[in-house]
Amino acid sequence: MKKYFKKLASLALFLLFMLLINSFFHFILVDDSESFTRIMMHEMYTQKEDIEVLYLGSSHCYRSLIPEVTDTYFNTNTFNAGTSLQQLDATYAMLKETAKSNDLRQVYVELYYGVNGEIFADRTDMTATYLISDYMKPSFNKLQLIINAGSSEHYVNGFILGRRNWEKLFDPGYIAQTVRRKLSEPYKNYDYITIKGDTYCAKGYMANDMKFSGSSNYITSSDLGSAFYENYISEDCRKYIIKIIEFCEKEDIKLTFFTAPMTDFSLITLGNYDSYINQVNTLLSEYDVDYYDFNLCKLEYLDLSNADYIDPQHLNTTGATKFSNVFGQFFTGQLTEDIFHQKYADKLSTLGTKILGLKIIPIEDYSADDLYPDLYFDLENYRYWELKPLTAGSSAVQFSVEKEASDGTITTLQHLDGNPFVFVPINETGTLHITATDAFTGQTTGEILFAY
Amino acid sequence: MLFNSIEFLIFFPVVTLIFFVIPRKLRSIWLLISSYFFYMCWNPKYAILIAISTLITYISGIMLSATNTRGGLSEETRTSRKKIIVGISFLSNLGILFVFKYANFLIENICSALNAVGLEIVEKPLDLLLPVGISFYTFQALSYTMDVYRGEIKAEKNFIKYALFVSFFPQLVAGPIERSTNLLPQINEIAEKSRFSYENAKSGLLLMLWGLFQKLVIADRAAMLVNAVYDNFAAHNFLSISLATICFAFQVYCDFDGYTNIARGASEVLGIKLMKNFRQPYFATNIQEFWRRWHISLTTWFTDYLYIPLGGNRKGLARQLINVFIVFAVSGLWHGASWNYVAWGVLHAIYQCIGIIKRKVLGSDTSKTPALPLRLVKIIITFALTDFAWIFFRAASLTEAMAVIRQMFTNLTFTMPADIGLNRINMVLLLVALVILFIVDLCHEKNVRISKIIFAWPKPVRWIFYLAFIWTIIMFGIYGVSYTTSQFIYFQF
Known about the structure:
The complex is a heterodimer of chains A (452) and B (493).
Chain A: H1 2-29, H2 36-45, E1 53-56, H3 59-62, H4 67-74, E2 78-80, H5 88-101, E3 106-110, H6 127-133, H7 140-149, H8 155-159, H9 172-183, H10 185-188, E4 194-195, E5 198-200, E6 206-207, E7 218-219, H11 235-250, E8 254-259, H12 264-268, H13 273-285, E9 290-293, E10 309-311, E11 314-315, H14 317-331, H15 344-351, E12 355-362, H16 365-371, E13 382-391, E14 397-405, E15 410-417, E16 421-425, E17 430-438, E18 448-451
Chain B: H1 6-21, H2 24-40, H3 46-69, H4 75-116, H5 134-149, H6 159-167, H7 169-172, H8 180-193, H9 198-230, H10 238-269, H11 287-293, H12 296-307, H13 317-335, H14 339-362, H15 372-394, H16 398-410, H17 424-445, H18 450-456, H19 459-476
């Protein structure tokens, strides 16, 4: 018997050494000194005051809701536990993790369309999962998250973090830098950081003051298509939405789903955004759970322009401040559901002839004669595009076009001209600077850059 | 369930733990259930085929035994009845193997031949999935039938034990093809003698680790280079194709030997000793010796159950050469239903025949070991010959094999293309791993038992070695995300 206990103790000691070596490789090979999630998770675990209101979701969440603003409305400790690319299984894990040591009263889950269509078995990149699992305390919840997130070929990287960067073992410079950073006081103290314009602010919010110029607000097809097919919400996502609902019911937590605002250009190019809203509403109404899409918010309550965004999908500090105020006012009863349109199509109709972006449609050999029988295109020597404004309604539009060749020379092709056709020599490369202006209102898209 | 998968990492300890905890009388049943579970993880329907093969050969064994002991029969009648029983066993098992493995190959070739003479035939292949390991367990079951026929072993009356012999999970899907005289007695002893041995566990686990090193660090790393070149051979030259073919020699060796070592290690933990299937094959000084060192269980199977019954070398030189051709052509076909495998087998047959004729003409001096320089030259020549043959084994078809060879010898440039599938770090790691392989094989060649040396070290040193070895596999193994857990090559047979 004594011999068996001795052997068992040896085995336990051996396993301990394995864990220590695992930690060692993690320390020297994984440089997470620029990880915002690391700081957020630490804050989440070490909040002095109970978190009573929790926000969960992807970057659409952590860039949109400022806890310092919403604290004043909810009059309690609100916390933003959004993380990059957070999918619903990770949302569920974060919810359970936060609920372990906080008396959650309300949870708001951001549900933009990018988190709802995923089929988990198709996952090839586990970064979004690791962002959270790497900083979760050891628990059954963490184990479940890693195991359920993908197939078994991902398990090793989920538990042996150093393995992800094994090639760095041959990069002494990288190892030295990583160790230096991890031994520094700012790292050990979880100081807030700023990386490339993104600043971590208290309680999970990430600020960025960049203003989106709208330079990429174009598509190259003539039809918008329909991004949201029937049964867009995948079975995996459906399953986790239900798990979140059931968990909140069991823990007596009020649950609300919402979608943070995105630019109208990004929504209109999806073709049938109302179909997405309907599918979400249909699912959540089965469980009597509320859903509010702030893209339906009337302009008089929330009027956001490109200047309120970093890019087509993420609010900057100014936009997040506006949104957080409306969010706080609405969910504390200061505003009613009258602030919302019924459908996105209704909201679009209030935009009038506002030009949101451009269609830059290449003119092809096979279509030129059919579509433009009265026009001549020298397709052997030139490339042609037709410019069409993307608006909620029709508009008289003038185009100003400058051509920047690859050697830097700029040529004005037209200025405030209704001519929609642009052409360049066939072998030339460069960038077109295109501005569309409403002939009546003077509203412009801002300069759109199209590389050719 | 692959040996290099998380699933096996959970399966094996659970099976082993329960094996040693339950009463001895139940251990064979437990192993049988585990073996079938292991096999059915590929496809539950596979279990039906192995069960049929098991039943047929079990009944054949019983009937052979009954015929042996039955009174009132003349020797002639007894022998002819036994031959009929063996014939039925072979025909039915090989029939199953033929249908699943070779039927479509036959259909394809018949259609091609008919189309070539102007008869327009639409090829309709059978919709059958090749069961993993069918070639291995079929041969193992048939060897049992022959062994009972020859009186080398008594027929196994206990169906559970016999079924376990056929389906024992460590060697089920890629060998070694065990002989009943080795494995069945050990299975019979489980109920009486099976007990946990710390020594067996230590050496078994060490052998499994070595197998994983061979598979994950060497074979799958070499595969990256081999695949990058062979999948796009038209863009490569003599140097890169040669390098890829050399790497393939080590890929197939480490893949197969790695699997066998994991199988042997797992069995050893359970207290069962399986045969060695490889004996440092690339140290062979001639092709005949190569085949005494490579896939030993298959070579001995073909020798005992095909070559010798055909007459072996007892019926003159011409007949011997024909027998060699038949055995190697069949061996090639055993590896795959494709002409490139047959070509690989025939090429080895040609090598063997040349060797036989050379020994007949020049005589063979086996009295002394050649001096080292001469031995090295012979090793290199033998390696070059086997490596050239590997082109046929690796190529997807005979046509592709010929195209690869043509590309090699019409592009006699010696500049390495930029992308050969491995970056500098992986290339260095592969080289270092091959050096380690060479050292280990050299020790085995000199009968130096590495495990004995390791186990004699002081405990702290041993532990450092184990931890370093395990972490080498974890960190440098080719598996998981961005590499798919790759199947062992020989699973396709």
